[in-house]
């Protein structure tokens, strides 16, 4: 084990300098970074999102796996969803903004019957003993409304669940208010957040029914009239932090005694009295009925401040535990016994990672799974922010047991670390202090343990003079979100504070493109931050780089995965938008010109060629006001640049290019449609009997695939032959619900009957959606119908799939 307190790298092996030597430390760190041979160039990414209220709580910024940024403020949680828009030509990052409002009523913890609690509150507030009355009146847990004190509004902390936990397969948001109310929210219709459950209320009821004893063997405590007992009952249900685990699998016994695997997720809640409640939820989480169990663990740590999940996989066996940090300094891992969880194991006893009571509070803990290149096994890197230092601990399991290497990285900041985040894909850690300085720490493995190479990122060089309040890194490490306010100007503090969420790039376009091509996820929606960098590059340069085209074509030829076809479709759509001409005027602004004069200007004559070109460009462009004029780049070459409006006939080559790109888009969309049709037909063949009718227009899909003579796919033809034999000359056509006429399957997007009634088709099952309510893709690519109770399980599984064009979820 490394000596406690020693630095993890030679560049960080010096003692923490006094405040006056801050510049010297920065120069030394910069020289060490330069000698290490790596350099990070942070570039500002527009737009900067201004917050309506000031931030609140510790670690106010969090970035979810489905690319939503939550910001804890004094009145609500602002949620910023990053989208990779394929229908607009603006170069700015596209952000969809929603909010989770703070509850209007104050939260009073349940510590006994209402009448008895009211009597005790009156007794303690009017007590002649000042140690009782003053403590009671000033404690905001007892008095969340505060009366003469400012109200406890806002949020203390927020935490995102893993991807795939709500009804739409997205992330849940656990929110902790300043008055200690813990709730779980879901965004089911994109425009509104819904509170699914109030865990504080449920936990209070459980404690009340158990007489505020953790187990039956506990000895009964004092009465509520005792002030110490009154404090104990509050502290045992006052949340400090909460964190989600990864999705695990449980076994559920059906009525016929068959077992089926059911997904579940755990939420660990750390309380003020050092107890930890571990909630188990069945997925998808719908509300109170999805709560499976709640177990309480005694951590034994005094003054707990933070926790995190430790999840380790060794030889296909998953181990889990909870890492708890104290405000006094110690850090340890607690075993978590997950009963009935398939393939999960835990520790036999707690493992102490740092035991010194050095009065350096643990502010934040991150656990990063890595692979050790020298030991040839998986390992866990635990990093914790303690004051201005970073404590790290490397955990790996060998034949000798659990090996623990720990140390500290010093010389990073002259002020305490206010926020820390980590890129779990490569183990890079980012820390920041309030003076606008961010450190990037890259772990480098050695024969024994590891060391850190770190580099300073001065946000003042990107945003100007700013103060930082929190940072968060995007899921794929492409962006860093920062909460900033104005810094000092000429030695003076700003009069007003304007809180903003700003973004800087951490990767280049080449790095993002390479990561997308070599991705093991193969899902564009889960890599929105990377695709946004690619989108930004194409919109600026108005062409797809040659190396990316060639590499993508090779990938398509070698493996033929539909992921690369979707990636190609994404690139073509962005290229199409980049070639669109920016509108000459604001589209929403009403025209003040007299229409009569416009008509009289050209009596008996058609519109001129310039007017036609202008009208075409206006109809084709879908840019918003903020995007107007930003799609042009004067540095482009003659082949790729847009023609000037003064050129006679110059629009013809551009129109030809647009038609060519549009034809390529339609060809790729048709290929993806055919591949999904084959999958749907495969499901139909596996799950239907002879001459069985389903809601899927099977015969229409078969005829549509066979209608193109140029489509040569032996697999599809063999599959269609088997299905037609099973259908036994039955057609099972669809009928219009308005006129009962047959709906022919001639178009993959819509169905039109002989009387002209038009119905859109579900892109997941290709059934015509003949109802007023249906779902739509996140990027408005396609629509899908809602599942019905009559649908078999295999059709419901099909309807749970993402968009076949952009991998986005369907709402």
TrEMBL record:
<feature type="region of interest" description="Disordered">
    <location>
        <begin position="597"/>
        <end position="651"/>
    </location>
</feature>
<dbReference type="GO" id="GO:0004402">
    <property type="term" value="F:histone acetyltransferase activity"/>
</dbReference>
<dbReference type="Pfam" id="PF19336">
    <property type="entry name" value="DUF5921"/>
</dbReference>
<dbReference type="InterPro" id="IPR045803">
    <property type="entry name" value="DUF5921"/>
</dbReference>
<dbReference type="Pfam" id="PF12660">
    <property type="entry name" value="zf-TFIIIC"/>
</dbReference>
<dbReference type="InterPro" id="IPR036322">
    <property type="entry name" value="WD40_repeat_dom_sf"/>
</dbReference>
<dbReference type="InterPro" id="IPR024761">
    <property type="entry name" value="TFIIIC_delta_N"/>
</dbReference>
<dbReference type="InterPro" id="IPR024764">
    <property type="entry name" value="TFIIIC_Znf"/>
</dbReference>
<dbReference type="GO" id="GO:0000127">
    <property type="term" value="C:transcription factor TFIIIC complex"/>
</dbReference>
<dbReference type="Pfam" id="PF12657">
    <property type="entry name" value="TFIIIC_delta"/>
</dbReference>
<dbReference type="GO" id="GO:0006384">
    <property type="term" value="P:transcription initiation at RNA polymerase III promoter"/>
</dbReference>
<feature type="domain" description="DUF5921">
    <location>
        <begin position="508"/>
        <end position="585"/>
    </location>
</feature>
<feature type="domain" description="Transcription factor IIIC putative zinc-finger">
    <location>
        <begin position="728"/>
        <end position="778"/>
    </location>
</feature>
<feature type="domain" description="Transcription factor IIIC 90kDa subunit N-terminal">
    <location>
        <begin position="63"/>
        <end position="507"/>
    </location>
</feature>
<protein>
    <submittedName>
        <fullName>General transcription factor IIIC subunit 4</fullName>
    </submittedName>
</protein>
<dbReference type="InterPro" id="IPR044230">
    <property type="entry name" value="GTF3C4"/>
</dbReference>
